[in-house]
Amino acid sequence: MSVFSDMLKNYIHEKDIKVGALAHYCNLERSTIYKFINGKREPASEQLVEQISCFIQLTPAETNRLKESWKMARMGEDTYYIHKSIEHFLYDFPNVSPASHTLAPPPIFRRLFSKGAELSALKFQTGRGFFGAPDYPV
Fold it and tell me: Of 2, 86, 89, 135, which residue is 20 to 30 A from 78 by alpha carbon distance?
């Protein structure tokens, strides 16, 4: 089971949705919807997830949670959280004060790189956009 299938199952049960009607609305076989629910398969596109959420009549926040859980199921939890960490870093990067010269890596990176190598804070030089070499072995 995946996060997406658990969430989809809960929404279908909570909103009392008939799987056959959902399958007909999405132009899919009923067995395909059951495969989504049981975690044996994920929808092929984000548009299909939107179509499902439209039929179930999810709120925008619920639709967003369902889409994020679909992305997590498609790429795997570790990869999803790495992408989210990078996205947050890039989004918040302009807000880093120029006085700070070290950045602590997010916990997920510490966990990934802790095998055999001690990961310390990544240091960089703020002048003229030059980034120094990291101080941990590769």
Answer: 135
